[in-house]
């Protein structure tokens, strides 16, 4: 038995080493995931920066387009003003031409009048009359000519001054519009060059952004694959750890049984030694027998604050073992899967078991999960009986019904495990049916 115990201790040390290796591998995977998350966050930050820069460039392009549109509208307005001034110039030229024609017409009228007066003067044959009319006619012609010259000079000066003023205004406006058009052309050319540069930069940024998005997508796929592989590895390690724990618990149970058997055998050997030494006092022999009986009848349940292991055997060739960490334990699990009983073994402390999960595995294939209602409290020293559907009546806080399943399941190897909200294993109940 000591050799078996040493062998079991070596196996337990090997299992602990494997468990520590699994924990180290898990920490390494977590560190790698953290580094990948940091890299992903850096890439996302760079993408956000590029998007912000692209937005600023788009705003700049929009502003340049608005400025270009404003310049085009001003150019169109200048063209409209130039056309209007051209029309005004043509109108004024027409007015000048009309006035010149009117002056020509007045000149012809005056010439006709002079000819008529000369004709009238030629009819008078008297030298005195002829001289008189000639002098009068000359003075009248001179007055008319002076008046005509004066009016003509006034009109001519007015028309020349008005024409020079208008020509100067048109030339000034034309020069100003030409300068504005030159400035507008230079500005449009500069804006077009800047717009072409911005478009080139935008195309480069878009290509870089698409490349970064592809890299991010590839990193996401890689991260998903790593997470899936990591989760699969974690599940495998959890299953291995759970299996190791079950094996450790089985070994602890077997070790406890061996220790109990060893203690019983030691007590029997001591009795036999006393009997062989010639103990004849019946009272002393009776006391030794009672001591052996008490030693053999020691409770097979060992309670501590952190771990309790209980083992037993039913009359129908079904063995079970249960363990608990803390005050809440799986007191009973029906072999036919009708109900499961939880118990709070503490005499004064209530236990909040809301959202705790009760998992039941049947022959390592099927798994049934029941979640305790939220904010449920298991009173001190009380039990909670959870029925399958149609197997009992709900009567909180002592009885609940699991409506999702007609049975918690039955089989040759049934494991019932209680987990808290953090996923920590708090109690187990293992049922095995012998094949004999």
UniProtKB/TrEMBL annotation:
PROSITE patterns: IF_ROD_1 (PS00226), IF_ROD_2 (PS51842), LTD (PS51841). InterPro entries: IF_conserved (IPR018039), IF_rod_dom (IPR039008), Lamin_tail_dom (IPR001322), Lamin_tail_dom_sf (IPR036415). Residues 1-283 form the IF rod domain. Residues 316-433 form the LTD domain. It comes from the Eukaryota. One of its GO terms (molecular function) is structural constituent of cytoskeleton. PANTHER family: INTERMEDIATE FILAMENT PROTEIN IFA-1, LAMIN DM0-RELATED. Belongs to the intermediate filament family. This is CBN-IFA-1 protein.
């Amino acid at each position: 038995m000591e050799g078996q115990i040493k062998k079991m201790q070596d196996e337990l040390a090997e299992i602990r080493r494997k468990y520590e290796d699994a924990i180290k591998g898990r920490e390494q995977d977590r560190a790698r995931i953290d580094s990948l998350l940091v890299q992903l966050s850096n890439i996302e930050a760079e993408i956000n920066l590029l998007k912000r820069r692209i937005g600023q460039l788009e705003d700049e392009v929009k502003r340049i387009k608005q400025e270009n549109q404003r310049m085009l509208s001003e150019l169109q307005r200048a063209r409209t003003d130039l056309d209007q001034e051209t029309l005004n110039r043509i109108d004024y030229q027409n007015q000048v031409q009309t006035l010149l024609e009117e002056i020509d017409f007045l000149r012809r009228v005056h010439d006709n009048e002079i000819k008529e007066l000369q004709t009238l003067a030629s009819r008078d044959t008297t030298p005195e009359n002829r001289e008189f009319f000639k002098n009068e006619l000359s003075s009248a012609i001179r007055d008319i000519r002076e008046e005509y010259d004066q009016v003509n000079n006034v009109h001519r000066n007015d028309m020349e001054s008005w024409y020079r003023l208008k020509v100067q205004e048109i030339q000034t406006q034309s020069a100003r519009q030409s300068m504005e058009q030159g400035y507008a052309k230079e500005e449009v050319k500069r804006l077009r060059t800047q717009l072409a540069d911005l478009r080139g930069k935008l195309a480069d940024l878009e290509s870089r952004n698409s490349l970064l998005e592809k890299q991010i997508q590839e990193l996401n796929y890689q991260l998903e694959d790593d997470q899936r592989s990591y989760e699969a590895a974690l599940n495998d390690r959890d299953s291995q750890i759970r299996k190791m724990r079950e094996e450790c618990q089985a070994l602890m149970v077997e070790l406890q049984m061996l220790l109990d058997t060893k203690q019983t055998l030691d007590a029997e050997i001591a009795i036999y030694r006393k009997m062989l030494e010639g103990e004849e006092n019946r009272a002393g022999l009776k006391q030794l027998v009672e001591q052996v009986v008490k030693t053999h009848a020691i409770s097979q349940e060992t309670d501590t604050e952190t771990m309790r292991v209980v083992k037993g055997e039913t009359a129908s060739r079904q063995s079970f073992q249960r363990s608990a960490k803390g005050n809440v334990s799986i007191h009973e699990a029906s072999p036919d899967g009708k109900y499961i009983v939880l118990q709070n073994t503490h005499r004064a402390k209530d236990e909040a078991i809301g959202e705790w999960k009760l998992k039941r595995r049947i022959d390592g294939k099927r798994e049934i999960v029941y979640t305790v209602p939220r904010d449920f409290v298991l009173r001190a020293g009380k039990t909670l009986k959870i029925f399958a559907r149609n197997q009992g009546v709900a009567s909180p806080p002592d009885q609940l019904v699991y409506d999702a399943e007609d049975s918690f399941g039955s089989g040759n190897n049934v494991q019932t495990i209680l987990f808290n909200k953090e996923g920590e294993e708090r109690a187990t109940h293992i049922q095995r049916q012998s094949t004999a």
